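Section 5.1 Outputs to date
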Amino acid sequence: MIASLFKKLSGVFQAVRSDNSTVIQIAGNNSGDIVFKDPIAVKAFDALKAELDKKQIEISEYKQQLQTYLDIISNLSQSKQNNELPAEEVEAALQAIIDSGDVDKAQALLSKLIEENEDTILKQAECYYQRGSLTYLHESQQTLEDFVRATQLNPEHLNAWNMAGHMYKRTGDLDSALQAYRHVLNLAEKTDDGEGKSVSYGNIGIVYQTKGELDKALEYYHKSLEINESQGNKKGIARDYGNMGVVYGKKGKLYEGLEYFQKSLEINESLGNKKGMASDFGNIGLIYQIQDELDKALEYYQKSLEIDESLGNKEGMASDFGNMGVVYRKKGELVKALEYHQKCLEISESLDRKEGISSQYGNMGVIYQIQGKLDKALEYYQKSLEIDESLGRKEGMANQYGNMGNLYINQGNLKQARAYWKKALVLFEQVGAQPQIEQVSRYLAELENTKE
């Protein structure tokens, strides 16, 4: 029998029963109710949820992470009740989460459960997945290893595959990310999981976009949009609009890009989705930057940064700092530009975001070239190129070939400049980056009229 106290917290339903136990359920999740008899377990879950709420991550990712937190607390609480884990150690781990969000003790207990369940493969797989989920928001190599181990032990573990895909993407292993997301898609198709299929299509599209295969990315974004529109999933629709806007921007179709970003922003504002709004502001700023409306671009980047800082969204902050650095460079404020690129680089390195690291090496190289530090500029272009080659990131490789061509022009080495611009042109044509195709083609045409 349910007593009088009932709470609904951002899609989480809690009810206190007459025996003082607490029933918790995640809205829209089919995992069923979880009952806690220990008040400290409820408080620990609430603490993890409060930390997650600050991140404003995608709704599908939020639901998955929240359910996993609930399962983790339940696992530890039950292990305490059946004497599988020492009661004092479980209580200390839960209290550390409540006091400071420290999950180290909880991780250690999950490690114990992994060791004790070597003969129970599915349970061991779940413990690996749960241990990885505790550190997912903070990034670590161990997180990826835990997700991968969970999929090895249980190839049907959809959530572990999905999280492994996220980690592969963030650390730059795009082929592995694509493989993981395709596995998620196959599992979602088996159960006719519409939301799972939509998210998978979107994630696959992002990987193709990063690889520079823009038409393929757009194809997958359209597939995701069709499902989200049929289900009335506004947050998913906004995400798809934003992703499609990025592709159109890269193709040089700025009007279409801006139109999709504004559609996305309108939905995210109506939903109060701050992370989505930050992304939209940044993308709109990028369109204005390309159009050389630098003050307007800076205004939108600042709006994005304010939200990302308030959410503690480090990836978003890194992107904002990098974008602002480009604007300051275009304004001729090179010292300030370098400062912002350095901020972006530091965050990207701390998160092991190889794509971000590569971009900042390239941006810093451009500044060093403007300052006449050609050897240092070339060093940074080569650093960027090495990372992009390892990622198979064609757009990044093309950018660095183009930058190196510009540098060789400064040195009067027309033969080398022509060679690098030709390499850049081939890659820009492959990804369909029309503005860059036109620019590099113009450079090469001018060289034809120049005697070496």
